[in-house]
Specification:
39% of the residues lie in helices and 15% in strands. It has helices spanning 29-41, 62-72, 102-116, 135-147, 161-170, 190-199, 223-232, 236-247, 260-267, 276-284, and strands spanning 3-6, 9-12, 16-17, 46-48, 81-86, 88-89, 97-98, 123-126, 154-157, 175-181, 202-206. Helix 2 links the parallel strand 4 (46-48) and strand 5. Helix 1 (29-41) packs across helix 2 (62-72), helix 3 (102-116) crosses helix 4 and helix 4 runs parallel beside helix 5 (161-170).
Length: 285
Amino acid sequence: MKTRRIGTVEVSAIGLGGMPMSIEGRPDEARSLATIHAALDAGVTLIDTADAYHLHADEVGHNESLIAKALASHERGSEVLVATKGGHLRPGDGSWTLDGSPEHLRAACEASLGRLGVEAIGLYQFHRPDPKVPYEESVGALRDLLDEGKIQQAGISNANPGQIRSAQEILGGRLVSVQNQFSPAFRSSEPELEVCTELGIAFLPWSPFGGIKRAGELGSSYDAFARVAEAHGVSPQQVCLAWMLAKSPVVVPIPGSSRPETIRDSVGAADLVLDAAEVAELDAA
């Protein structure tokens, strides 16, 4: 598995997004554990989660607990960087709410520490800006958690270019990751990717397969991904991830998965090399 860097940590070029294993449509625990173990067997050393990845109000942190269980039962579990997030909440009625207050983020971090069973979280990210709380106060809470050793590295999610630069300043140059939505169908985070490339900050695209389906099911807007996939004898999903990797050395995709076979397919993107013409074709799709 080829690697990339998130701050001081070298991770697999393709990570695993844990969200599908804990929200609507989630599989049973056995399949989720098999999926995480398949990822580790394939060389994945980055898993993304959040305390809000759950269904019911009484199971906050479902995904964190699931990942902790999977890592504890695998010989390579200790090699994985677990990235979790706080500041987004699910009351249990299907909605998503926000709380970016320093008090909440501190309490959320402490709870995540307990569920993950670690003394310090490898990468803790502010999940989404809260309009009711000044951004500098939310990010300031991460700075304090860093200084206290509760978290080893800090990141932000769903941020705009100004917020990235602000967070980098508030954290004293210690911002290591930005996790934004980015996919063939959602490219409005290109400016954020450019800022991350400039500053050397890892860019973690979430929901990277937006707009991508299996060959034969693609809409006309994305048939370029199917054409390139056919030429290489791989899935359009692999081409999508390889395209992202080719865009910048700071990109580390975190495709969500709830089946062993899908994460095995995704990791193949790390070794899929697209030429400049193919990348240009996909950029224009």
